[in-house]
Amino acid sequence: MKSPRFTGIGSFMRLPQVSEMNGVDAAILGIPFDTGVSYRVGGRFGPAAIREASRLLRPYHVEHEIEIFDHLSVVDTGDLSVVPGNIQASYQVMVDGLRPILEAGVVPLAIGGDHAITLGELRAVAARYGPVGLIDFDSHTDTWDSYWGERYTHGTWCKRAIEEGLIDTNRGVQIGIRGSLYGSEDRGGARALGLHLIPTEDLLQRGVESVVAEVKQRIGAGPVFLTFDIDFVDPGFAPGTGTPEVGGPTSRDALRLVRGLRGIEFVGFDLVEVQPQYDSGEVTSLLAGTLLHEFLALIALCRRDQQGAPRVAPA
Fold first, then answer.
1. Model pLDDT, residue 18
2. What was the pLDDT predicted at 12?
3. Cβ(83)–Cβ(89) under 8 Å?
4. Cβ contacts of residue 48 below 8 Å, gap of 6+?
5. The predicted structure's pLDDT at residue 314
């Protein structure tokens, strides 16, 4: 440790801020876009708040017993210059910004922003890897056809991604679905699209280990994208979000679920829907930063398990 954690430029975990991908394994990038929301706004401030909270994080992961940065070269590439109010232009910014990262064989970890950003990310990821498996931690399915006539929102991104052929629905899982609905068709629509749903009640009754085993069986082999909407977690543990749903898993449940996903071929991650103005004592931002730390640990474990095999960019 060269300096106190409250000093230095506010990158994620005070990582180097670079745009060059040579020799890099994983890249943090902010996508401060929140035009896709349907209720509260403020996700554009999520990347800054999560980076600030990440100063508390350290490189050694106790449960996995791994020094993350001994196995990974990680950088923070800063924020993409999205276009406030213009979701289509912002999607192109996301695709263009992610392309060089993915072409270099680097795993992107995006910080949102609202959940609409995931469609832009998946467009870039699928352009490189083809349709990918999806693990979606969320209290909502986000498979509505439109919100009051708008087809591109944080509640429609998943349906658009399936329609565009970006997701292999045979390898798609949504975990944590709960809350009131406009109608029964809201949840049935996700299943009709081919996604496998694990509602919160199932998770809480069955336990973490059982659910992790089911997710791994469903996902199988091949590239996977993980998206984590912070409203998956009960608002008692993560109040700083735009569409909270009570009765959810704890922050500890969330961490244990992610830790159980070791061995999956992840090609991208995001963490979305943090709205710091609704937070209390930065607990939501700290949880979000800790989840990103967990994602990095999964990548590091994969690299270590490969016994130091060099990175190979996808064909």
1. 79
2. 79
3. yes
4. 10, 30, 32, 276
5. 42
What is the Cα–Cα distance from 152 to 157, expressed in whole angstroms? 6
Burial bucket for residue 24 (CB in 10 Å: 0-12, 13-18, 19+): buried
Sign of the C-alpha dihedral, residues 90, 83, 13, 251?
A: negative
Q: What pLDDT score does 150 carry?
A: 86
The Cα–Cα gap between 13 and 15 comes to: 5
pLDDT 10s digits, 91-146: 999 999 999 999 999 999 999 999 999 999 999 999 999 999 999 999 999 998 88
What is residue 134's three-state secondary structure? strand
Angle in degrees, 0-180, between the axes of helices 87-103 and 117-129, rounded to the nearest 10: 40
Instruction: Count the neighbouring beta carbons within 10 Å of the beta carbon of residue 236.
Output: 14
Q: Which amino acid is at 42?
A: G
Give residue 313's pLDDT.
44
| Top-level class of domain 22-305 | alpha beta
Residues 6+ apart with CB under 8 A from 171: 132, 133, 134, 218, 219, 220, 222, 224
Classify residue 295 by its DSSP letter: H
What are the tokens at 128?
A: 């490189």
Low-confidence ranges of the chain (pLDDT < 70): 1-10, 14, 184-188, 307-315
**In this structure, what token pair is assigned to residue 147?**
């919100």
Residues 6 or more apart whose Cβ sits within 8 Å of residue 243: 37, 38, 39, 40, 139, 140, 231, 273
pLDDT of amino acid 17:
76
Name the residue type at position 276: P
Domain boundaries, the chain: 22-305
Q: How far apart are CA 201 and CA 252, in angstroms?
A: 16
- The reply to whether the predicted model has a pTM over 0.85 is yes
251-259 helix and 283-305 helix, angle to the nearest 10 degrees: 10
